[in-house]
Amino acid sequence: MSASAGSASATVRLTLLMCSAEVLGMTSLAAFPSFLTELSALWSLSGAEAGFIGGAFFFGYMVAVPFLSGATDRVDARVVFVLSNLLMALGMAGFAFAASGLWSGALFQAVSGAGLAGCYMPGLRVLADRVPHDAGTRHIAFYTSSFGIGTSAALLVAGALGRAFGWQHAVALMALGPLMAAALVWWRIGEVKPPAAHEARWLPRFGPVLAHPRVRTLVSGYAVHCWELFGLRSWLVAFIAFGWTLSASTPGLTPTEAAALVMLLGQPASILGNEMAGKVGRSRWIVRVMFASGLMCWLAGAAVGAPWWLLLALLSLYNVTVMADSASLTAGLVHSAPPAQRGAAMALYSLGGFGAGFVAPLVFGAALDLSGGTNTPLAWTVAFGTLGTGCLIWALFARGER
User: Fold this and answer.
1) What pLDDT, in 10s, does the model give residues 129-168?
2) Which of 29, 288, 293, 362 is most solvent-facing, going by the fewest CB within 10 Å?
3) Domain count of the chain?
4) At 371, is the secondary structure helix, strand, or coil?
5) How many Cβ atoms are within 10 Å of 67's Cβ, its own excluded?
6) What's the CA gap between 386 and 361, in Å, rounded?
């Protein structure tokens, strides 16, 4: 076997391993959204309060990510990944057995989110530090798409476990996912010292990173992408559950199963979108996708009273547009950031994205409350409109910069 073939084979094995670990660690993202309707009734939550608990997950991520992603410039990202998965499992166990309302629920969601901050981008750093720079971006596209695959699987698992054991034991059992991810990476991936580790800081300097115009554009693009993505995922199960109550025919899927299907159908769009970006130009592709998703959010929200199969089809199409620029944005950042500043760039990228992810579910819930409540179809249309407006604005500005 030639050296290049051996290197390609090693890249494939490493990518599959990290994608598997990422899928296992995504269970925390479904812990609250899967049971939002049930917990809203149990804890007497308003739409804004439910959105606050959902957003607290991303707040924890936002607070922790500068430290955890930045730390990968100093220590092996593998260590950060493993320890953060353990933290995520702890947060899920706390949510299962100690959460009893708004503030305790938000606290343990924030702990789980802080754990994810040391898993998603540091996991990408595990790949980036072990794959040759000239290997292209396909491995990055597969890794980023695994985020959604993991979320889809987590929704299915949460629904099945919830029906069998109740929400508390379901969340506790789902905490096994991050534990398995930590064990897999710790035992199967060797240590690699990051480049220029002796020069890096524990808390990254964002100034040098922001000096790159391309990085600034990608960071802001990722922020509006995550606003839309995490706002949608936080409320998708509840939206489908309400839509099912308006359907004249009996739906063939439970709300969690339908949400998992919607999420899963969006994942090929991330990989294929990155391929399209390589053909038509990354900037041009991202702008077009942002325009499409900014329009589709209104159409999907307005379909809440449609037959269940049509609602599911429109939600799936909307999610395709949401995901079609995901890998392109991340691959663009990895290749635009200087290697010695890669950890700082990823930290800033995640800070912007998950900071937006913190606010989006809260704004969505507030829009529901102000427009008539969760039992009003028009309120859901308005709330969905809050998801994609930022994409339209970003696309207009980015189009002018090209």
Assistant:
1) 777 665 566 777 788 778 888 888 999 999 999 999 999 9
2) 288
3) 1
4) coil
5) 16
6) 10
